[in-house]
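--- STAGE predict ---
source: upstream dedup step, 1 unique chain passed
mode: sequence only
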Amino acid sequence: MTDRLYLYDTTLRDGQQTQGVQFSASEKTEIANMLDALGVDYIEGGWPGANPTDSEFFDHAPKTRAKLTAFGMTKRAGRSAGNDDVLAAVLNAGTDSVCLVGKTHDFHVHEALGISLDENRENISASIAHIVSLGREALFDAEHFFDGWAANRDYALSCLIAARDAGARWIVLCDTNGGTLPHEIEAIVGEVIAAGIPGDRLGIHTHDDTGMAVAGSLAAIRAGVRQVQGTLNGLGERCGNANLTTLIATLALKPELAALVPQITNAALKSLTQTSRRLDEILNRAPAINAPYVGPSAFAHKAGLHASAIVKNPTTYEHVAPDTVGNARVIPMSNQAGQSNLRARLRDAGLDIPEGADLAAILTDVKSREDQGFAYDVAQASFELLARRHLNQLPRFFDVERYRVIVERRRNALGEQISASEAVVVVQLRGQQVMSVSESHGQANGEDRGAVNALWNALGKDLGPYQASIDDTHLVDFRVRITGGGVEAVTRVTIDFEDGQGQRWSTVGVSPNLVDASFEALQDGIIWKLIRDGATP
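--- STAGE serialize ---
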């Protein structure tokens, strides 16, 4: 394959249909710029006129190299294309490309639209022709196409032909409910091409309800389509859409596919993990740990035998090098670890292993502490500090003398119940005692920033020469698990941090007391960051 494949992103529309996701106009602009930097060819900005956010986005649309596309539906029956106010709102967005969705499944034409098959086909033809007459690029989104093909292939195909003959640049075949299997998609695409719609005018749009949206997209590409649609991190309603993050990496890195996407540069590919995680940050959620290419565990090797093989030959268990997508190899430490894992992990952390170092003692300590409730395979920063302590390579930046947290529930001036937390932390810093106090107030809407937030602010509030490193750091996730039971129960807290350079790290704390476990993880997070920044004790 040597011809060109066009990448079409629908994150700003389909992604917004994800349960719990609602982008602001400014967030949509940031995401559009991120997509543009990746090298996608089309960015579907939303449905202008359908909601205030989408309209605001198009009113102040960013300047992108990619073609910004407005989405809408074909004209309604009984109106001309030039007289349909819903279609007019889409066209008024002023984009060079316009994508219109239309029905191609006879069941939906009768039951959802309540019109005849001929009327629906005429709506498609007239709408596409109207867009073309205005000098715009027209795309036809063939909704429920694969189900329509199964039910009445002659009619489904006739809708595609109507769009083709009206001048549609792209005709997008949609697996709207995500139920079509990859081999079926490949066969049907082949039949559509044989029926007279060339692959360089066909696109594929799949949903992930069977977990095969990426596979279905690749099957369609194999059959000849030359536009593929998807969303960053696979956002979308129900189980999501084809994951464009995964597709971009697969297309760019697999030799038999790479020639199709010359627009994806090596630099863009290296930004893929950061782009994926920035989207999660905007959504205030943790990255999917096992996401292909970009997940925190995408290149994690836990078993000792695997780690040993990785040291000798990284390609043994990695189909691509982690840094090609901006990710990193992780050799987690756990109670399953051996010395091969340990040596690899220490080397990756930049630690010198002195001659005669008692590595067995480190492993024994890890296994003993995991028996107490720690989990180092998901808290690499805390493991590194533990190893440094054994190797006498752990700097002492400060010593915590004491801390105190008070949580109070009260009513505010409006009579609404809120919670408030006050934290006091006292540290010894270069021979001086420093006391910091911070408050964290619950909000009237019920949001409670809580004791951990107050502790974090107090601990990192006044660390003198280290302040610049701490000010660049924020918490991105906080997880609590109770291990054991009865009087033996302890609390494990895992905290994820991120700094302004996009560097992420995780720490763990364990204690019978939730606040104490949190404080241990917070303290580890600060110390690890100071070491990474080259701070001097």
